[in-house]
Amino acid sequence: MSDKIKQKICYFDLADIYQEQNWLEDMARKGLLLTYTGYLIYDFAYGEPTERRYRILPEKRKKIEQEELDIYESCGWTCVRGTHASTVFYTDDQNVPEPFTDAVTEKKYYAKRLFSALISSIVTAIYILWILRPSSKGFVLNPVDFYYQLADQLSPFICLYLVICPLLVLFSLTIVFKYARLIWQLKREAFKRTSGFKVRRYVNMILINAIIVLLVGLFIYVIFVPDKRIMTSSFKEALAYKDAELVRFSEFDPSAWDEVRANMIVRDGNKNIDNPDITYETSYDRNIMMTKMSSEDLSAPSRTYTRDKSGGNLMYHVQLYKAKSAKIAARFMPSNIENQLEGMNFDVSKKRIRDMRFKYDGLDYAAYIRASEKDEFAYELGTQMLFLRKGNKYVVVAYSGPIDLKSKVGLFAAKM
What we know:
Layout: E1 5-9, H1 17-29, E2 32-37, E3 41-46, E4 53-57, H2 66-74, E5 78-80, E6 87-91, H3 103-132, H4 143-149, H5 155-187, H6 198-224, H7 235-240, H8 249-252, H9 254-263, E7 265-268, E8 271-274, E9 279-285, E10 290-301, E11 313-323, H10 326-343, H11 350-355, E12 365-370, H12 377-381, E13 383-390, E14 393-400, H13 409-414
Antiparallel strand pairs: 1-3, 2-3, 4-6, 5-6, 7-8, 9-10, 10-11, 11-14, 12-13, 13-14
């Protein structure tokens, strides 16, 4: 046997234990003899083609008692070292009896060991589905609704949700099905050791390679593609930020703007510095479904607005979503309204969302809500929210202050 090693990817899992045996025997007939089993990479040494028999035990080598390993070896079966979840034995003697001479004991042993792997696969599949859910309300069974709920996510995350995660789920569910089917056959004593392996290997290969390529592509995108998002708490940068489609606080409440602007700059000797207690953030982004997402976020203490509970703070947060089509905006909006309300600590229900809607000429959708006592924290702040949509534009406004937010609908509608 040559010292030269050839490495091959093993595309089989424990559920494919018998197909893996057939694959290793096929490699031996080609002169490739197994020397080491990794979690994914197997090492083969070059040798003479031989009719080598392989048997795989669904148990890690370190979990098998040495006494048991000695028994296998005394019966003519050599153990291949490795780190794989299973242990591989081989023999070149065709007359050596099977490791399990009792077929009933073999089936019970395999079914018991494979059952724990089945449970792990089910837990993994459920965990991936949990990650996949885009809504805090639970799973979205309708794939169309699921697609539109992702409209405001960055392109890599849309790829992650719509392509990579479904592939992982498909792969996990395939493994679960294979485990369940094999265990059922073993328990019913209806299993016959199959002679094929190529189809199973190709199917596993396609799924695994697709997941790896997409994950690598996602990693490269995140690391090397520049982020188009701009966010700042610098007052100078905020003033330089221009967006004709966004209603800024200076337009929303001009009388309070001068005071807010004065509060945003404090003197430090001969220098003007941004007040760290004031947050003024703007952002701009785009992805494959939203051509534009921009926002203005402002909070500041105000002497002109006093509330016993809130401590007299002004808060203004406006978000503009500009989708590629009116359909995307309309389908994205319902789930976004729920998420926005929950994010501002409102008590959310389907009935309440229906009741907050009102009609406004020129808009496809308009809704307004003011925090009530059942909203607790939002009520403490005196939060109001406005949701407006026209065509492919969708605007969300959150505000705490002396102005009735609903009276400003015309200001936002004029820019839509």
